[in-house]
Amino acid sequence: MTITSKVSLAQIGTEQRNPRTMAIDTLSTLEMVTLINQEDQQVIIAVNQALPEIAKAIDAIVIALKKGGRLIYIGAGTSGRLGVLDASECLPTFGVGEEKVIGIIAGGDRALRHPVEVAEDSEESVIADLKAIGFNDRDILCAIASSGRTPYCLGGIGYAKKMKAKSIALACVKESAIGKIADFTIEAVVGEEVITGSTRMKSGSAQKMILNMLSTGTMIQLGKVYSNLMVDVRSTNEKLIERSRQMLMDATDCDYQRAVTLLSAADGHVKSAIVMEILNVDYQEARQLLEKHEGHIRHLLTAKRED
To answer: What confidence tens digit (pLDDT) does each residue in 154-185 have?
Structure first.
């Protein structure tokens, strides 16, 4: 009896053997890490070439969030973990939680720490996962898959289309299966992995960089950043409280004690405290002004100068 594989890896770039690393097991430790570092430099090039598509995806995410939708990351294995990581970091950094950004990994939270590789093969389970969060036409889906062919991701994009929601494909190969059906396609082609098929390496690094851009770029466009300061930070521990004070000092040139006083009056909200100090207004008026200008300090200050 002849046995044939259900999955053909022969044409998938991330599954090819890397001719430059075939003797990596013969190298000294320094030679080994030097070679890995050289290969990692291909990640920068690949991401750079994908910048126009990344920018289009950010603009689409901004539109969705402004309409009351959410950014939903989905993926399996390393790709899923990276999506969950990026989503979870939006709360402390930008004051945005699951009401705006959600990460879903195939196999559920257990898969964050333990391999549940079979979960990626189900196009049906992703539909259940998306239904569980009330995925709808205002949301935007970002499917992450190094190979660009993960069934879990294909099923997710298919469901997004059925719901008339926009979708983004993030892959590390050319002409990916998910890219062919998504509304926006990002393909950062990093080439063969250092260790054949180990997409947690170059592919994972590229995905992490791109996810950083997607979430950070979106939050900048939504007014969550003033200059290069994360002014919607949630001050949930001592480090973040001190960071909030330092940001306020940097943004307004006030001294430390004034920063402490302002933040106390602003209920710890850096953005409001900045407006209070620059415009000499109270907390209530600062919040009203920010709401009028959709949370953008820069827009608010420009409008005040033009009055």
So the answer is: 999 999 999 999 999 999 999 999 999 999 99
- Collapse the DSSP code of 19 into the 3-class scheme (helix H, G, I; strand E, B; otherwise coil) and give the result: coil
| pLDDT tens-digit series, residues 249-268 | 999 999 999 999 999 999 99
Distance CA 115, CA 260 (A): 46
The CATH number of the domain covering residues in 238-306: 1.10.8.1080
Report, as residue numbers or ranges, the catalytic residues: 89, 120
| Residue written as token pair 């949370």 | 295
pLDDT tens digits for 85-142? 999 999 988 989 999 999 999 998 888 888 766 666 777 899 999 999 999 999 999 9
**Tokens standing for residue 99:** 């009401």
Tell me the pLDDT of the chain averaged across its residues. Answer: 92
3-state secondary structure of 32: helix
Q: What is the DSSP letter of 229?
A: B
Q: Do 27-221 and 238-306 share a fold?
A: no
Cα 298 to Cα 128, 226, 231, 264, distances in angstroms: 42, 7, 12, 23
Asked whether the beta carbons of 82 and 145 are under 8 A apart, the reply is no
**Domain coordinates in residue numbering, the chain:** 27-221, 238-306
CATH number of 27-221: 3.40.50.10490
Element spanning 104, H or E: strand 101-105
